[in-house]
Amino acid sequence: MTLSWTCKQFNDLSLTELYELLQLRSEVFVVEQACAFQDIDGQDMAAYHLLGHTPDGKLAAYARLFDAGISYEEVSIGRVIVAPEFRRFGLGQELMRQAITHCERYFAPQPIKIGAQQYLERFYGSFGFVQCGEMYLEDGIPHIPMRRS
How much is the pLDDT for 81? Predict the structure, then answer.
Protein backbone atom coordinates (compact mmCIF):
# COMPACT_ATOMS: atom_id res chain seq x y z
CA MET A 1 0.00 0.00 0.00
CA THR A 2 1.39 3.39 -1.00
CA LEU A 3 0.63 6.44 1.11
CA SER A 4 0.98 10.09 0.23
CA TRP A 5 3.01 11.86 2.90
CA THR A 6 2.74 15.44 4.08
CA CYS A 7 4.42 17.14 7.01
CA LYS A 8 3.00 20.36 8.37
CA GLN A 9 3.40 22.71 11.26
CA PHE A 10 0.36 23.12 13.50
CA ASN A 11 -0.87 26.37 11.94
CA ASP A 12 -0.69 24.84 8.46
CA LEU A 13 -3.00 21.91 9.30
CA SER A 14 -6.53 22.13 7.97
CA LEU A 15 -9.32 21.68 10.49
CA THR A 16 -10.09 18.32 8.87
CA GLU A 17 -6.46 17.16 9.22
CA LEU A 18 -6.37 18.26 12.86
CA TYR A 19 -9.64 16.46 13.58
CA GLU A 20 -8.41 13.27 11.85
CA LEU A 21 -5.11 13.15 13.68
CA LEU A 22 -6.69 13.81 17.09
CA GLN A 23 -9.35 11.19 16.35
CA LEU A 24 -6.69 8.61 15.40
CA ARG A 25 -4.59 9.38 18.47
CA SER A 26 -7.65 9.00 20.69
CA GLU A 27 -8.68 5.75 18.99
CA VAL A 28 -5.28 4.16 19.56
CA PHE A 29 -3.75 5.73 22.66
CA VAL A 30 -6.91 6.15 24.73
CA VAL A 31 -9.47 3.57 23.56
CA GLU A 32 -7.40 0.67 22.11
CA GLN A 33 -4.76 0.85 24.84
CA ALA A 34 -7.42 1.46 27.53
CA CYS A 35 -5.40 4.35 28.90
CA ALA A 36 -7.04 7.50 30.15
CA PHE A 37 -4.43 10.21 29.65
CA GLN A 38 -4.17 13.78 28.43
CA ASP A 39 -3.30 13.29 24.76
CA ILE A 40 -3.77 16.96 23.97
CA ASP A 41 -0.71 17.97 25.94
CA GLY A 42 0.08 21.50 24.77
CA GLN A 43 2.94 20.36 22.52
CA ASP A 44 1.04 20.04 19.23
CA MET A 45 1.60 23.70 18.42
CA ALA A 46 5.40 23.20 18.54
CA ALA A 47 5.38 20.02 16.45
CA TYR A 48 5.62 19.10 12.83
CA HIS A 49 2.79 16.68 12.05
CA LEU A 50 3.64 13.85 9.66
CA LEU A 51 0.52 12.48 7.96
CA GLY A 52 0.29 9.43 5.71
CA HIS A 53 -2.93 9.25 3.69
CA THR A 54 -4.26 6.40 1.56
CA PRO A 55 -5.11 7.07 -2.11
CA ASP A 56 -8.75 7.57 -1.05
CA GLY A 57 -7.76 10.18 1.56
CA LYS A 58 -7.96 8.19 4.81
CA LEU A 59 -5.36 8.97 7.50
CA ALA A 60 -3.45 5.70 7.91
CA ALA A 61 -0.25 6.77 9.70
CA TYR A 62 0.88 9.68 11.84
CA ALA A 63 3.76 10.95 13.98
CA ARG A 64 4.82 14.17 15.70
CA LEU A 65 8.30 15.57 15.14
CA PHE A 66 10.03 18.02 17.49
CA ASP A 67 13.14 20.12 17.26
CA ALA A 68 15.71 19.75 20.04
CA GLY A 69 14.76 21.28 23.36
CA ILE A 70 10.99 20.77 23.15
CA SER A 71 10.27 17.21 24.31
CA TYR A 72 13.90 16.22 24.93
CA GLU A 73 17.29 17.86 24.60
CA GLU A 74 17.52 16.02 21.27
CA VAL A 75 15.27 16.12 18.23
CA SER A 76 12.40 13.71 18.92
CA ILE A 77 9.63 11.68 17.34
CA GLY A 78 6.43 10.85 19.19
CA ARG A 79 2.80 9.75 18.90
CA VAL A 80 3.82 7.17 16.28
CA ILE A 81 0.62 5.51 15.02
CA VAL A 82 -0.64 3.28 12.26
CA ALA A 83 -4.44 3.07 12.19
CA PRO A 84 -5.63 -0.42 13.22
CA GLU A 85 -7.20 -1.20 9.84
CA PHE A 86 -3.88 -0.47 8.07
CA ARG A 87 -1.55 -2.59 10.20
CA ARG A 88 -0.21 -5.65 8.34
CA PHE A 89 0.99 -3.59 5.36
CA GLY A 90 4.42 -2.54 6.69
CA LEU A 91 3.28 1.04 7.19
CA GLY A 92 4.98 1.30 10.58
CA GLN A 93 8.36 0.86 8.91
CA GLU A 94 7.52 3.41 6.22
CA LEU A 95 6.23 5.84 8.86
CA MET A 96 9.51 5.65 10.79
CA ARG A 97 11.59 6.05 7.62
CA GLN A 98 9.53 9.11 6.73
CA ALA A 99 9.79 10.49 10.28
CA ILE A 100 13.58 10.15 10.36
CA THR A 101 13.90 11.67 6.87
CA HIS A 102 11.69 14.62 7.83
CA CYS A 103 13.59 15.17 11.09
CA GLU A 104 16.82 15.35 9.09
CA ARG A 105 15.20 17.71 6.57
CA TYR A 106 13.79 20.13 9.15
CA PHE A 107 16.36 19.88 11.94
CA ALA A 108 19.56 18.66 10.16
CA PRO A 109 21.06 15.20 10.76
CA GLN A 110 21.58 14.78 14.50
CA PRO A 111 20.63 12.36 17.28
CA ILE A 112 16.92 11.58 17.69
CA LYS A 113 15.34 10.50 20.98
CA ILE A 114 12.05 8.71 21.57
CA GLY A 115 10.09 7.41 24.53
CA ALA A 116 9.17 3.97 23.20
CA GLN A 117 6.63 1.54 24.54
CA GLN A 118 8.90 -1.22 25.80
CA TYR A 119 7.36 -3.99 23.71
CA LEU A 120 8.40 -2.07 20.56
CA GLU A 121 12.12 -2.03 21.42
CA ARG A 122 13.06 -4.42 18.59
CA PHE A 123 10.97 -2.46 16.07
CA TYR A 124 12.69 0.85 16.90
CA GLY A 125 16.03 -0.93 17.18
CA SER A 126 15.73 -1.84 13.50
CA PHE A 127 16.04 1.91 12.76
CA GLY A 128 19.19 2.32 14.86
CA PHE A 129 17.54 3.34 18.14
CA VAL A 130 19.15 1.92 21.29
CA GLN A 131 17.91 2.03 24.84
CA CYS A 132 19.55 4.93 26.70
CA GLY A 133 17.98 4.74 30.15
CA GLU A 134 15.86 2.73 32.54
CA MET A 135 12.31 1.51 31.95
CA TYR A 136 9.65 3.86 33.29
CA LEU A 137 5.88 3.81 33.49
CA GLU A 138 3.98 6.39 31.49
CA ASP A 139 0.24 6.27 32.09
CA GLY A 140 0.67 2.71 33.39
CA ILE A 141 2.47 1.48 30.22
CA PRO A 142 6.15 0.40 30.37
CA HIS A 143 8.33 2.72 28.25
CA ILE A 144 12.04 3.00 27.59
CA PRO A 145 14.05 5.99 26.40
CA MET A 146 15.80 5.26 23.11
CA ARG A 147 18.27 7.28 21.08
CA ARG A 148 19.48 7.10 17.48
CA SER A 149 22.93 8.59 16.83
Answer: 96
